[in-house]
Amino acid sequence: MISPAITDENVTAPAGFLRRALMLDALVTSGNGLLYLLASEPIAEFFDMRTTPLLVVGAFLVAYGIMVAATARPSRPAPWPTRLVIEANIGWALVSIVAAVFGWLGTNPIGTAWTVAQACVVAGFAALQWVGLNKLQARTGGSAVDQRAVRTPS
């Protein structure tokens, strides 16, 4: 007996949704990182902080954005790298909120509001990616692996 094949039509929509959520994250994250790297002095002045943290965070964000883009590249993003991105985004959002609450960044109120706002955006990316991964796995029987024409014992 042949089980119903997982057709491209069954997984195209959720895979596309997940890929778009990952790519949006990659673009926004890399863009934010480049902005921190290229305009660290005026941003630091605006947020009333030192430039060094912006340069470090900017470099990290560019590298992380590239990794997220690589995760989004396959037509069906693999589950474990996608989960890693989701967990990293949740961690980033939580640490950002804690840093804002305890004043660890030493920014003015505008910088603190920016920290909270970007934490919300990153948490939103994690939520979109989680939904996309769950939809993809629901359509592929719990895995994002191509299982076309899987034979089951009769």
Explain what the structure shows:
This is Integral membrane protein. It comes from Amycolatopsis orientalis. This protein is an all-alpha fold and 154 residues long. The protein has one domain. Helices cover 75% and strands 0% of the residues. It starts with 7 loop residues before the first helix and ends in a 15-residue tail after the last helix. The C terminus is likely disordered.
Q: State the major sheet.
A: none
Helix content: over 70%
Q: List the domain count as a whole number.
A: 1
Say how many strands there are. Answer: 0
Query: What is the CA-atom radius of gyration, in angstroms?
Result: 19 Å
The geometry reads as elongated
Low-confidence stretches: 144-154
H-E order: HHHHH
Strand content: under 5%
* Average residue pLDDT: 88
- Ends apart, CA distance between termini: 5 Å
Number of helices: 5
Helix/strand structural class: mainly alpha
Considering the chains and any ligands shown, give keywords for the structure.
mainly alpha; transmembrane; elongated; 154 residues; membrane; disordered C terminus; single chain; 0% strand
